[in-house]
Each structure stands twice: as structure tokens, then as C-alpha cells.
Specification:
Two copies of one chain form a homodimer. By secondary structure, chain A is of the alpha/beta class. Chain A is built from twelve helices and seven strands. Bound molecules: adenosine-5'-triphosphate (2 copies) and magnesium ion (2 copies).
Amino acid sequence: MGKIISITNQKGGVGKTTSAINISACLAKSGEKILLVDMDPQANTTSGIGMNKSTIKLSSYDGLILGVDCNKLIHQTDYSNLFLVPSNVNLTGAEIELTQIDAREYKLKKMVSPVRNDFDYIIIDCPPSLGLLTLNSLTASDSVLIPIQAEYFALEGVGQLVQTLDLVRKNLNPNLAIEGILLTMCDFRTNLSKQVAEEVRRYFGDKVYKTSIPRNIKIAESPGFGKPIVYYEMRSIGAEKYLEVTAEFLKLNRN
Amino acid sequence: MGKIISITNQKGGVGKTTSAINISACLAKSGEKILLVDMDPQANTTSGIGMNKSTIKLSSYDGLILGVDCNKLIHQTDYSNLFLVPSNVNLTGAEIELTQIDAREYKLKKMVSPVRNDFDYIIIDCPPSLGLLTLNSLTASDSVLIPIQAEYFALEGVGQLVQTLDLVRKNLNPNLAIEGILLTMCDFRTNLSKQVAEEVRRYFGDKVYKTSIPRNIKIAESPGFGKPIVYYEMRSIGAEKYLEVTAEFLKLNRN
Ligand SMILES: Nc1ncnc2c1ncn2[C@@H]1O[C@H](COP(=O)(O)OP(=O)(O)OP(=O)(O)O)[C@@H](O)[C@H]1O
Ligand SMILES: Nc1ncnc2c1ncn2[C@@H]1O[C@H](COP(=O)(O)OP(=O)(O)OP(=O)(O)O)[C@@H](O)[C@H]1O
Ligand SMILES: [Mg+2]
Ligand SMILES: [Mg+2]
């Protein structure tokens, strides 16, 4: 039974896409069969993993709004065990279109349920908002993985996010759990990173992965080549840390 | 006649709020009367400038959705010449509520028009999306200032943003101009920053400010103290560069 996990944080630029791509790639490399679903109209996951956006005919929009069979949306990526439901710019209008549809928060759940058992994990990259695209993802998910950038504004938004998770549990998906909290873009030479990390560990306790991801230029370069970090520069600290946090993730899930 | 400027980019974490706060503070310091409008449900501008979110009764939500008089929403900040219309979490629901309202894209324009001539500049901080909150801001604005982080994903979204600006000009606000493009978080020791900057200058020509903002820890620290950089650490490279780009901005606007 495939586990469905949303990568969510309404704060922008905290490493949602980077974590979705790199944790998925590390899981696939360790033999897990992975479906990555891009629910962000920016389609950064789609391009960051090397898909050519202009060749994509059907996307998450078609599954969500038009009810197209998910199997028709799934692409094989260049990386073994790693499959993708791409996004494209049509998704920008989806939030407004969804407001007119019945059971609007359950559309993604309906889309991915038929393929759930074809994969070990389904990883959903969310846009930077708490609108209907993110609500759809949270409703479809077993758990949510929250990247938090080690900076002030990212810390501020955590309260709103936790409140939204409570609302989703109450009204849409009672079993939604927290998969884990991942500290990203850390530079522990600065007080700022240290203070934010302390605060996050105080708030979430052992839900915070022991591994944190440092700021690393190789991570920022890799999407420009359409490659996850473990395929772009295996010897980098970025690859090392994403492999480490994936090992932590698997240890928690295999028990 | 006050000029209204949106700070917009649907890519998350590119320095919209940081630029809104710091350009506004630098303009206020040089004698311009500034109204900062926080249109992001995250309310980062509101807290980054030192307002205590829990003491705020009325916010941009009340002006936008309930039609409350803008004068009732304006707060004096701790900094002379700098005023704020704060945001709060109610704004999260505004995007969905706006879909049911007539002339939904013109609500912000209607809200700020009555106070337009009380200020030299009205600066609007937008959320990381191209939804109805951003469309409201673009419809209310004379021009748009676009921060672009010197990284791959930020470059990718520029095409979508330019298409949206064209749509807004065609259907909602024919006079919407580009105020300027600001390169942020630059580290020109890296090829990535150099390549992105070259690409942006090739695409936008002299619309790109000569000044770019380097990555600077003092900039990331300052919102935690509720202070713009020129009040937090005047001797930092961050303060110097925001003063420089503001001088460029004023030179272009005073002619
Ligand atoms: N550990 C890291 N070191 C260096 N750069 C990073 C790191 N993680 C992410 N980045 C870069 O920071 C930027 C923001 O990351 P990313 O786009 O993954 O965040 P996001 O949360 O998905 O953003 P959005 O809110 O727009 O969806 C990107 O340019 C990315 O390449
Ligand atoms: N020049 C800079 N140097 C270092 N840090 C910066 C710089 N500019 C912004 N930051 C930091 O980077 C993060 C992202 O910036 P900011 O929140 O202003 O972006 P944004 O575009 O408003 O994000 P969102 O899309 O969530 O609204 C913040 O933590 C901010 O403090
Ligand atoms: Mg993303
Ligand atoms: Mg912001």
C-alpha cells in the first residue's frame, strides 16, 4: 500500500521543490518505486527533474479538473524507479475553477487513489499557499513533510501551517499525520540559523529530522541541469545530507 | 498624485517582502511619504516592520472584502513618513471569497484610490502566487517592481509572470508599466548568479536596476528585530545596496 506524502509550507522559497525532488530521487535510488506529483503551477519539480515542459500534453490539471485517468498522466523520468505527474501553467486557473466544483478538496485524492498501490511512495510538491491546491494535497495524503528554512519569516509561518493541518484533520482528512520537519538552507555559523533551529526543535520535538540540509551551491545549481543532486554531484555535502535524511525517513517508515 | 507600485513575483522566497520593507524605509528616510500595503496572508511585511500582529484589529482583508474605509486601516509605524495597512490570517480566505464577488479584481483599487493623494508612493507586497490577491494588486497599480533571485527556478518563472502582466494590461489595467527588475540574493562568486543576472539583463535590458542586492546575513536578521535594514545595521552592505537602488528608483521617478 503506497504511502502518500505532501511536501508543504506556505512560506515561499523554503526548499519544498528541492526536497521533493531530492528525497524522491534518493528513495528511488534505494529501490523504492516513487511517483512524484507536481501540484505547483510554477512546475519547478517538472523542470527540475529534467522534463521538457513544452512536450507535456497532459498534466496534474487534467487529472484534477477534468478527471483524466492518472495512469495517462504518469511519465517515466530519466531516473530508474522515479515517475512523475507533471504540472503546467493550466494549473494557475485551477484554484479558481475548483471553487465552483462539488467535493473540491477531494479531487486529488480521487485522482491518485487508483494508482496508490503501484508505488511505494507518492510525493506531492505543493505551491507556496494554503489554497485549494494545497488543501487537495493534504486531503489526499497520509502525512505531511514540512521543510523549514532556518530564517525568521519561515519560522513565523509555522503557526498558521499547524492551524491549517488541524482544520484539515477536523474537516477533510482525520488521519493526516506529520511525517517530519526538515530544516533547510542552514548555516550554523550564523546565530539566525542556530536560533531558528532551536525554536523549531522546541516546538516539534523529535518530529524534526536529526539531519538538517546546509546551504550548498551544488543544490542550487542542479535543477538548471534537470538533475537531482545525487545525479548531479554525488560528492557534494548536499547529496550527502539528502541521502542521510532519506535514510532517516526510511528507518522511521520501515519499522 | 501618489504612485502605486506592486512588488510581485509568483516564485516564492525571492525577496518581495524584504524589498517592499527596505525600499519603503529608504524612501521614507529620504523624505517621501510612504504607505506600505501588506497583501500577503503570511503578513511578513506587517511583522518585519515591527507591528505586533495580535494588536491589529482591522487589516487589508477588511478593506478588500468588507469595504472598510482605508483611512481606518492605516497604522503609523515606528519610522517617520512610513505608514502601513497590515495583513492578517483572515486574508487566507479572501482568495476564495473574492471569486463570489462582482468586479473582484478591482477591490483593492477601490480601497486605495481615496488615499492615493495622501502619499508620495503606495507600495504593495504581494503573496507568492498569481491568484486574485496579486491580480487585485496589479489592477490597482501604476507599475510593478519585480525582485528576481539570482537562481535557476526564479528565472524559470519570469515567462509566466510577463504573460500575466500582459493579460492584466489587456483586461484590467491598460497602463500597468514595469517599474524595474531587482536582482536579489546575488553571490557573484558563483557561476549561477552570474548566468542568471546575464539572462535577466538580456531579457529586460535597461529595466534592470544597475544595483543588485547581495546575499547579506544582516538583511535576513533584521525582520527578527522588526526593523528595516537601514534602522537595524546602517553600516551593512545590505543597507548600502538598498539605499543605492532607492536612489536609482527616485532618479527615474523624479524626472
Ligand atoms: N540547501 C540548499 N542550498 C542552496 N540552495 C538551495 C537549497 N535548497 C534550496 N535551494 C535553492 O533555494 C531556492 C528555493 O528553493 P525551492 O524552490 O526548492 O523552494 P520552494 O519552497 O519549493 O519554493 P516555492 O515556494 O516557490 O515553491 C531555489 O533556487 C533552490 O535551488
Ligand atoms: N539579500 C538578502 N540576503 C540574505 N537574505 C535575504 C536577502 N533578501 C531576502 N533574504 C531572506 O530570504 C528569505 C526570503 O525573502 P522574503 O521573505 O523577503 O521573500 P518573499 O519573496 O517575500 O517570500 P514569499 O514568496 O514567501 O512572500 C527571508 O528569510 C529573507 O530574510
Ligand atoms: Mg517549489
Ligand atoms: Mg513575502
